[in-house]
Amino acid sequence: MKERFCPNCGSEIETNARFCSKCGAKIGDREERNDGFIDCNKNVERVERSDEATSYTMAGQDGPKRKKGKKGLFKAIIGLIVVAAVGVGGFVIYKMYFQQPEYDVLVNTDDMQINILIDGNENEEASANCMVLGRPKVEQWMIDTRTEEGIEKSRALEKMLGANYKEKVNLDKSEHLKNGDVVKATLNFKAPEGIKVKFTKDVLSAEKKVEGLRTDIMHYHKFPEATKKALIDQSKQKIGELDNGKYEVVEGPVAAEEYRLANTGYEVKLIFKVKEKNNTDDASKQKPIYAIVTFGFFNKEATQFKYDESKGVEITKNGETLKQLKQYFKDHTMYKPAKLD
User: Fold this and answer.
1) pTM, to two decimals
2) 27 and 6 in contact (C-beta within 8 Å)?
3) Are 286 and 275 in contact (CB under 8 A)?
4) pLDDT in tens, 25-34
5) For the chain, which residues make up each domain, given as ranges?
6) With contact defined as beta carbons under 8 Å apart, do 232 and 254 qualify?
7) 169 burial via Cβ count (<10 Å: 0-12, 13-18, 19+)
8) Most buried residue among 35, 290, 301, 334 by CB atoms closer than 10 A?
9) β pairing state of 137-141 and 105-108
10) Cβ-Cβ contacts under 8 Å for 312 (sequence gap 6 or more)
11) Cα 106 from Cα 126, distance rounded (Å)
12) Which residues pair with 327 in a beta bridge?
């Protein structure tokens, strides 16, 4: 019989011994090998310990396999991110270099507006005009100005952006306006030929109701004859009383100027050509002298009037001509000069 040895400490053991007499190791069922040692590995159970120490398994059985779940999920996520990045990058490149743009220029017109203005009186002079507030603003420019075609397009666009948009506004009604009329204004934006322009607003529109127009007074040449005679007589009287009778009327009235007073009525100025009574100089060498007499009116029929004491009779002293006087009143009054008979 062959000698037997402990698989743990290598000491010689008896044939039927179940424990080693030296180290106390349990021998258990065993088989003898050709080298005289007892092969106990076939009967020793491999147990996986919680402290991750070396484990044993029954002879002929495979050990536990590693789990690969978390590592696979991580790889999948990384793959999805890479695919998404490639897709977005490809889309951007396509939009920038391959897709034909929808427009050459994007122009913002949101801040622009039309302001309708009403001026004049209800009888015959009321009219409408307008202002265009704000300017178009370029937000995107897709034209390549390095080419001849791009340069030409750029010039055409600059001309469009710098245009006088007031002249391009269409007013459906602008003359002979009356209270209650509605004026509508429209401005259509158009791109230069051959250029694709996208406007944030293609059309601007506005409307305004006409109200608050005042009725103009009757012009002097339409005054009742009795009214005109009363004005002329009173004017000559006031001129004759000035400076102890220094002046006398030579001709007149040679002009009549009308305008509106602030919220109280109207005024009319009658202009007479006068001379100094005691001036013996040759009349051809004398400077022209004019007397201006002001009356206030408080209704449009001119049946109520009053000599304006605060202004009195104004005598020109600097040799102004009648033409210069009429131009002065034209520049400083709200109404056109009245036409004399």
Assistant:
1) 0.40
2) yes
3) yes
4) 777 654 445 4
5) 1-65, 67-99, 105-209, 220-332
6) no
7) buried
8) 290
9) antiparallel
10) 238, 242
11) 40
12) none
Indicate the residue type of 279: N
CB 307 within 8 A of CB 295: yes
What residues have CB less than 8 Å from 128, skipping those under 6 apart?
A: 116, 117, 118, 171, 173, 174, 175, 177, 183, 208, 210
Neighbours of 13 (CB within 10 A): 21
> Is the alpha carbon torsion for 140, 145, 146, 147 positive or negative?
positive
H helix intervals, the chain: 69-93, 148-161, 225-241, 322-332
On the 0-12 / 13-18 / 19+ scale of CB atoms within 10 A, 251 is: exposed
Question: Taking a C-beta distance cutoff of 8 angstroms, is the pair 267, 261 a contact?
Answer: yes
Kindly give the confidence (pLDDT) of every residue in the chain, 341 residues in length, as a single tens digit, with 9 standing for 90 and above: 456 778 788 777 777 777 787 787 777 654 445 454 445 444 444 444 444 444 444 444 444 555 556 677 878 888 888 888 887 877 777 665 555 567 889 999 999 999 999 887 665 568 899 999 999 999 988 888 888 988 998 999 889 888 899 889 999 988 888 888 899 999 999 999 889 999 999 999 999 998 877 655 566 777 788 888 888 999 999 999 988 888 989 888 888 877 665 445 677 888 999 988 888 777 677 788 899 998 886 565 556 677 888 778 888 877 788 888 877 776 765 554 444 43
- Both structure tokens of 237: 């009287």
CATH label, 220-332, candidates 3.30.390, 3.15.10, 2.60.40, 3.10.450: 3.10.450
